[in-house]
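Let us work through a complete example step by step.
Step 1: write down the sequence.
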Amino acid sequence: MAALLAAAVPLLHAAERPTDAAISPVYALAENTLVEAAGAQAHTASFFAYDGSGWSASRDGDRIGPPRPLKWYSRSDGRFCTHAPERSYREADCRVVAIDGDRANWTGEDGRAGTGQVLAGDAWGLEQRWLQRPVRALAGRDAVEALIDRTFVVAVLGDDRPSGTESGAYRFEPRGRGQMLVPDPGNSTDRIAGASVRPFRWTFDSERGLCIGVEERSPEQGDCRSVRLAGDRMSWRMNDGGGVYGRVLPDDPRRLSAPAREAARRLRARLVGHTLVVRHRDRPEQERGIRLLPDGDGRIALRGAGAAGTVRPLQWLLRDDRALLCLTDVPASVRRREFTSHECFGVAVEGEAVRLQPPSGNALVGRILAGNAWDL
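Step 2: predict the structure and record it as tokens.
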């Protein structure tokens, strides 16, 4: 493509709850600090951010050494693994961990056992020492109030890819109202593309935490959890040991409010079934015609100086929750459900004018022509 364009599920998503005892330590350690003894007065602490990153530091007496970055992940057999980011994974990096309250016990690949203590949050301030700037940490009512008129985007625990993998979103509105994006359970590759939007109600109780109810359930009858916010990174803790993790984004970037959904509907109506004719700023002598068909297929052609005018097939996906138009020239016989960031363009429409903004570089600007204007 670079060459061409230079059933509702329960409120708690499946990824939020431990599926078996083997992964429950992951929920206890994520967004928390594990401290282990390293001598008579020496200790080592590791903070595990939800996205598979983290930091570690050693303390001897009252002196804490500089933090070091780490990567972590869990295996299906229950082993919890950590290693330095600059090297690849080794079997010796893994250990079987068990958590009981705030106590941790583990057995390494070499058979040696160890014990430690789990402290809430970034207890040693490793993240802010690494970043060399304060990290605003909120809990309880303060954290919940910080959510109002913002969107919590749920991520898959341990996913360290730059964009992460989303598994839902919640927009918190004033007066205990909100809208949630429920993933498509039948689409394991892109659970957001077929997601549905549902309303929910919420309240905060100093003892039970943030409580959410959907459909006929009141918030008091729904699921309650504690909330902790560190910068824009948030964790929800549930009584059963599970957790929900992700980022808090300003305003309504996933278009969950009624006005935003209507804007998304209008955007789809302006694009699908019509022809987009765009020019690259660096090659104004050539025009590209893009026709989007309703079933995710399409056609593209190049016209102008030095252009052959050949019509080629394409596949497309409109992420109207993000105002992104994703395009690929992979043949339709290989159905694409997932697109890379380099195949997606920010799309803006004003009247007949259209603008496609790639992740980097100049935008493609042009116009929308009604129907199949280029006979594609």
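Step 3: interpret the result. Residues 258-271 form the longest helix (14 residues).
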